[in-house]
């Protein structure tokens, strides 16, 4: 079970509150409703990387790489932040490792080439 942290780099009116990963599938809690899916129901999973700027207080604006994890189901798409700076869930690395055990995760790099 992964609980949502205090900060988020992704604005959402319906943020994901909790993600549970098991051998049989995935349970996502969003706005008090639980969505349960078996692993074969997942259509695709990817991490989209983009350059972003964010300020965490006066004079602290900085550039960082925003990483958005996107899971597409037959009739639902879930997105949450897995960036190094303020990811949406505690134990971000463990969550990514667990999801990687069950899903083929495509990495899409949309950062500007230098």
Structural class: mainly beta
Q: Strand-and-helix sequence, N→C?
A: EEEEEEEHE
Helix content: under 10%
Span of the ends, CA to CA: 39 Å
Tally of distinct domains: 1
Taking the sheet with the most strands, its summary is: 4 strands, antiparallel
| Low-pLDDT residue spans | none
| Order of adjacent strands in the largest pleated sheet | 1-2-3-4
Instruction: Give the CA-based shape.
Output: globular
Percentage of β-strand residues: over 45%
- Tally of contiguous helical segments: 1
Description:
Strands 1-2-3-4 form a 4-stranded antiparallel beta sheet, covered by helices on one side. Strands 7-6-5-8 form a 4-stranded mixed beta sheet, with no helix packed on it. A hairpin with a 3-residue loop joins strand 2 and strand 3 (25-30). It is mainly beta and 114 residues long. The model has no long low-confidence stretch (mean pLDDT 86). The protein is globular. It has one helix at residues 92-102, and strands at residues 2-3, 16-21, 25-30, 33-38, 44-54, 62-72, 77-81, 105-109. The protein contains 1 helix and 8 strands; from the N terminus they run E-E-E-E-E-E-E-H-E.
């Amino acid at each position: 079970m992964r609980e949502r942290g205090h900060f988020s780099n992704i604005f959402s009116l319906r943020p994901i509150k909790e993600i549970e990963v098991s051998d049989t599938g995935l349970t996502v809690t969003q706005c008090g409703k639980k969505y349960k899916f078996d692993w074969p129901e997942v259509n695709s999973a990817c991490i989209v990387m983009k350059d972003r700027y964010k300020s965490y207080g006066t004079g602290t604006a900085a550039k960082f790489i925003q990483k958005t994890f996107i899971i597409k189901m037959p009739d639902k798409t879930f997105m949450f932040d897995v960036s190094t700076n303020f990811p949406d869930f505690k134990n971000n690395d463990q969550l990514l490792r667990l999801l990687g055990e069950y899903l083929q995760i495509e990495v899409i790099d949309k950062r500007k080439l230098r």
